[in-house]
Amino acid sequence: MSTSSRIEWTERTWNPAVGCTKVSAGCKHCYAETLAKRLQAMGLDAYKHGFRLKMLPERLDEPRQRKKPTMYFVNSMSDLFHERITDGFLDSVMEVISDTPQHRYQILTKRHERLGAYFAGRSVPSNVWLGVSVENKRHGVPRIDVLRRIPVKIRFLSCEPLLEDLGSLDLTGIHWVIVGGESGPGARPMQPDWARAIRAQCEAQDATFFFKQWGGWGADGKRRSKKANGRELDGRQWNGMPGPVNL
Predict the structure, then answer these.
(1) Are 198 and 205 in contact (CB under 8 A)?
(2) Beta bridge partners of 106
(3) Rounded to 10 degrees, what is the CA torsion of 158, 163, 168, 173?
(4) Does domain 2-229 match CATH 3.20.20?
(5) Is the pLDDT of residue 247 over 90?
(6) Domain-by-domain residue ranges, the chain?
(7) How far apart are CA 167 and CA 140, in angstroms?
């Protein structure tokens, strides 16, 4: 289902598949899993089995029905490169994307091996932005090299939830970096200097920086609601988008 999104860096979400399984530390408090349980309780058919992965071919044509140019975040309720999503279904998703050049599609994954293998023999549609999650050094940073090798117009990193200082990053070929703290029950705090270090490296290496949120812990280390903690880093918002893009 395609719906308007409250995610600050996109306009709408499109979920031709839903459900997922955990692969790394960033998955521990998955917002999509929590939301899926709520949608299951509401009786939505796509979530009849909770967060179990399900391909939904009936949703494939939704972007074709929207003529207004739109930024779509693909599979906000899953991971498009999950091992149980078939290559054939991925081909169908890419066909829809190619057939709707008026839209742009942001695809974010934690499954960098599958991402690299899939595009090893295929071209990325020109209206796709590809990204990987980089929550820590152990799981996240190795994903960057795989992303960098894929020929695509826009490559981006989502450092959310940012769980530690990522140290020195090679941002060669990376166009956009999103940083954010974790929200929801059990949220793990993000230290301000972790975000500042990434911002400085973006500035030094010509990557655009976007600060999404503090999440459940403020810059002062106090627990509050995500809304109360806000989106300012060092007294201002950082809403950078790659290229001539405004949302």
Answers:
(1) no
(2) 73, 129
(3) -10
(4) yes
(5) no
(6) 2-229
(7) 12
Residue type, 88: G
- Is there a cis peptide before residue 125, judged by omega within 30 degrees of 0? no
Note the pTM of the prediction, 2 decimals. Answer: 0.96
Summarised one tens digit per residue, pLDDT across range 232-246 is 999 999 999 997 655
**Dihedral sign, CA of 220, 226, 198, 116?**
positive
pLDDT tens for residues 201-223?
999 999 999 999 999 999 999 99
Q: What is the pLDDT of residue 3?
A: 80
- Answer whether 115's CB lies under 8 Å from 109's CB: yes
140 close to 166: Cβ distance less than 8 angstroms? yes
The first and second tokens of residue 209, run together, are 């920086």
pLDDT tens profile 160-187: 999 999 999 999 999 999 999 999 989 9
Question: What are 69-115's pLDDT values in tens digits?
Answer: 999 999 999 999 999 999 999 999 999 999 999 999 999 999 999 99
The backbone region for 65, taken as left when phi is positive above 0, alpha when psi lies in -120 to 50, beta otherwise, is alpha
| Ramachandran bin of 167, using left for φ above 0, alpha for ψ from -120 to 50, beta for the remaining angles | left
Q: DSSP of 228-246, one letter per residue?
A: HH-S-BTTB--B--SSS--
C-alpha R_g of the chain = 17
The vertex-235 CA angle with 231 and 240, nearest 5°, equals 55
Asked if 130 and 154 touch (Cβ cutoff 8 Å), the reply is: yes
Helix-then-strand count for the chain, H and E: 6, 10
